[in-house]
Structure formats: C-alpha cells, structure tokens
TrEMBL record:
<dbReference type="GO" id="GO:0009055">
    <property type="term" value="F:electron transfer activity"/>
</dbReference>
<feature type="domain" description="Cytochrome b561 bacterial/Ni-hydrogenase">
    <location>
        <begin position="14"/>
        <end position="203"/>
    </location>
</feature>
<dbReference type="InterPro" id="IPR051542">
    <property type="entry name" value="Hydrogenase_cytochrome"/>
</dbReference>
<feature type="transmembrane region" description="Helical">
    <location>
        <begin position="21"/>
        <end position="41"/>
    </location>
</feature>
<dbReference type="GO" id="GO:0005886">
    <property type="term" value="C:plasma membrane"/>
</dbReference>
<feature type="transmembrane region" description="Helical">
    <location>
        <begin position="167"/>
        <end position="190"/>
    </location>
</feature>
<dbReference type="InterPro" id="IPR011577">
    <property type="entry name" value="Cyt_b561_bac/Ni-Hgenase"/>
</dbReference>
<feature type="transmembrane region" description="Helical">
    <location>
        <begin position="61"/>
        <end position="85"/>
    </location>
</feature>
<keyword id="KW-0812">Transmembrane</keyword>
<keyword id="KW-1133">Transmembrane helix</keyword>
<dbReference type="GO" id="GO:0020037">
    <property type="term" value="F:heme binding"/>
</dbReference>
<dbReference type="InterPro" id="IPR016174">
    <property type="entry name" value="Di-haem_cyt_TM"/>
</dbReference>
<keyword id="KW-0472">Membrane</keyword>
<protein>
    <submittedName>
        <fullName>Cytochrome b subunit of formate dehydrogenase</fullName>
    </submittedName>
</protein>
<dbReference type="GO" id="GO:0022904">
    <property type="term" value="P:respiratory electron transport chain"/>
</dbReference>
<feature type="transmembrane region" description="Helical">
    <location>
        <begin position="129"/>
        <end position="147"/>
    </location>
</feature>
<keyword id="KW-1003">Cell membrane</keyword>
Length: 231
C-alpha cells in the first residue's frame, strides 16, 4: 500500500502520483476523443464551434480524425499501462465485490435520509461498480475503434458487414461513455462525496473524513504497517 498519513496537515494520501497521471491522462484524452468524435458528425460548423479561438480546425473532418487518432494512442497506452501496472502490483480495490449492488442501494437511500451508510474500505461499492462498467465501455470502444482504424488505414475493402458492426458498436458505446462520464461528474457533486474532490487533484483527502467514512480502509493500512514492522 502506498497510502501515507500526513498527520500534521490532517490528510491521508489516497492516490499516488502515478494514479493521478493515469486518471487525468485517461480523462483528458477521453475528453478529446469525445469532442473530436462529435466534430466528425459534423457539428463544429453547425454550432459555430469553428468560430471559437483555436478551434477553427474542428470543422475539418480529416484534421479532427487525425487529432482523434492521436488522442486514442494516449488513451489506449494509458489504459494498457493501468492494467499492467495495477495487475503487477496486485491492486484489487476497484474490483466489484459480492454485495456491492445491495450496499450501493443502501448508500443511495442514505442520501435521502433513509438509513445510514455502512463503514467503507478505500473505495465505495458504487465506485467499484462504476469502474467495472466504465472498463467494459472503454474496452468496447478500443476494440471497435481499432477495427475502424484498420479499415481506414490498411483495409479499405473490409467487408461492409464488419464495418457497419464496428461502427454501430463504437457509436453505442460512445453514447454510453458520455453518460458514464456525466454520471461520474454528478456523483462528485453529491455532498457526501465532495471531500473526495481534493483527492482527484492532490491525491490526498482529509483524515477526519477517512476516519468517518472509510474506517475499514484505515484499518487495512494499520494492519499493513504492523505486518511490515514485524518482518
């Protein structure tokens, strides 16, 4: 575990520098993919996006496509790095667990004053479910996008049925990606989750928040520290 307590500042490290780079790299490249995907519809000229400073290129299909390809290289590279890096480290905190759906319902009810939240480990059950959902969406976008790119670059005579299937899959999961992205933003706005915003930018959250809402996580850190001291 890479978590560290910053007692003098009343903080605890929730995300390492590597994890922050992963998160923001995937988020920003994903946002560029989302926008350039919309520009190819085309939408830029129709909604006067081309008149905005620095975005005159957005009305050019081929330039938008090249920017889309460039962002996809970064996006795929970081997604692959995420799998390899955390796989080697044995990180399993974001993998959904048995009972996550039931616990998520309990958490949602607590937002409306019906019952109380149970104690949590590092990640909330709805975060683990959202992670699995987003991972599936990203996987389908990458696979369908690779098929479309292969057709554009290497196989212009690819069977129409494959092209249409890849296009429909890409479009459907593109919409799901937008909805998941909006859901991610909406979840942060909820009052109980707002203390997590600090962690997204700095990697650390308030220690009193962690003690109140994530006591199981702190207990895991304590056990790891004791085990390390005994080695």
């Amino acid at each position: 575990m890479g978590e560290k307590r910053l007692e003098e500042k009343g903080l605890i490290v929730r995300h390492s520098a590597v994890e922050l780079i992963e998160h923001w790299g995937i988020a920003l490249s994903g946002l560029v993919l989302l926008l350039t995907g919309l520009f190819q519809l085309p939408m830029a000229q129709r909604y006067y996006i081309t008149s905005l400073p620095g975005l005159s290129w957005s009305g050019d299909y081929f330039i938008s496509l090249q920017v889309h390809y460039l962002a996809s290289v970064i996006f795929i590279a970081l997604a692959f790095f995420h799998l390899v890096y955390h796989g080697i480290r044995g990180d399993r905190g974001m993998i959904p667990r048995k009972g996550d759906i039931r616990t998520s319902v309990t958490v949602i009810k607590s937002f409306f004053g019906k019952g109380e939240e149970p104690p949590f480990s590092k990640y909330l059950p709805e975060q683990r479910l959202a992670y699995a959902g987003m991972a599936g969406i990203i996987a389908m976008l990458i696979l369908s996008g690779l098929v479309k790119t292969w057709k554009n670059v290497y196989a212009p005579d690819m069977p129409l049925s494959i092209v249409l299937t890849a296009t429909w899959v890409h479009n459907v999961f593109f919409v799901l990606f937008i909805l998941a992205f909006l859901g991610h933003i909406a979840a942060i706005i909820l009052k109980p989750n707002r203390p997590l915003v600090r962690g997204i930018f700095t990697g650390a959250v308030r220690l009193d928040y962690a003690r109140h809402r994530h006591p199981l996580w702190l207990a895991e850190i304590e056990r790891a520290m004791i085990h390390k001291a005994q080695e």
